[in-house]
Amino acid sequence: xxxxxxxxxxxxxxxxxxxxxxxxxxxxxxxxxxxxxxxxxxxxxxxxxxxxxxxxxxxxxxxxxxxxxxxxxxxxxxxxxxxxxxxxxxxxxxxxxxxxxxxxxxxxxxxxxxxxxxxxxxxxxxxxxxxxxxxxxxxxxxxxxxxxxxxxxxxxxxxxxxxxxxxxxxxxxxxxxxxxxxxxxxxxxxxxxxxxxxxxxxxxxxxxxxxxxxxxxxxxxxxxxxxxxxxxxxxxxxxxxxxxxxxxxxxxxxxxxxxxxxxxxxxxxxxxxxxxxxxxxxxxxxxxxxxxxxxxxxxxxxxxxxxxxxxxxxxxxxxxxxxxxxxxxxxxxxxxxxxxxxxxxxxxxxxxxxxxxxxxxxxxxxxxxxxxxxxxxxxxxxxxxxxxxxxxxxxxxxxxxxxxxxxxxxxxxxxxxxxxxxxxxxxxxxxxxxx
Length: 435
Prior knowledge:
The protein is mainly α. The chain has a domain at about 315-435: Serine Threonine Protein Phosphatase 5, Tetratricopeptide repeat (Alpha Horseshoe). Helix content is about 70%, strand content about 5%. It is built from 19 helices and 4 strands. A 4-stranded antiparallel sheet has the order 1-2-3-4. α8 runs antiparallel to α9, α10 (about 235-245) runs parallel beside α12 (about 265-280) and α14 (about 300-315) packs antiparallel against α15. The longest helix has 28 residues, at about 365-390. It starts with a helix and ends with a helix.
């Protein structure tokens, strides 16, 4: 009985705090009812402005005191009087967050224990999009004769509310919501009373659509960017990739070529262009022309010479491919893919020669092919070891070790050094798999 009384006492003590949590919400709801009544009584510009403001206040009330980037302590202080029901960890879209859960919202903290986002779990106004209602009321005020000096700050404020909500949704991985919110922020700024082109909002909306894998929505937004001359290389790259994702490869190529002409140094366009041509088995000389133009603009970019090497590798022009891989490595000795692909090319050449040898009935020709195969395997050692030594990614390092282990196993009886190298890479792979 005593335990029950204690429990009831805790509940009774908590009730005032729970009510205090929604004090601003109660006030905003009362003002909303007054504003609705005022519009029914006299539907003039001033009444609609008050109604729009009341809806905006209803949006603000649950998140008052929440600022993206604020520390946990600052946020707790600003929200003094609101009860934290629980503090726990939560995973959203593969990311871990610390979460403070309140009666009407969750606040999410990132690795630095700063606010990265929030979610409203209990809407203040059920069944209504209060920001959309705010915009609707402000538009009515404009129809009733409200002037720019009064309305511009109000539309800007709505745009900012949409922007903050979009940033929160994006940080939490709610990309579909983020896309809609960024677009709404852009639209609020586009209102004739403001007439501002917030290019970042529209580009972020498109990028969020890409992350949400909404190809048609991304196409719609990025085409809108083009129509408004909000363009850079990334816009072309994302738009082209969205068309490809929607199955329109021809449009994808058209946009990538157009984008490359306008932004020849943009890596996103170049990578997409090369990959698209390779995926569709198009004329490789078209891509080589593109790469040569890019090399003229960026003569020290190792990845451009590496990419050209891959093209010649696919065309089986191995001498040119190797020369380009070496040029790439010369430009950037830390660019691991250049030596790795040089080693891989020699290894593949060895496998091709082995296949030929296995089908050869003439002993002399068979022996010659075996010698050529062994020569290719030995040539693969130096670039693979170079890649192994500079690789920071453990997966690449392990791949190099696997190749080297197989090569040194083949030649282990030729020298003690080969035997030692075989054991070295075998031990590395064992230790790696154990970890």
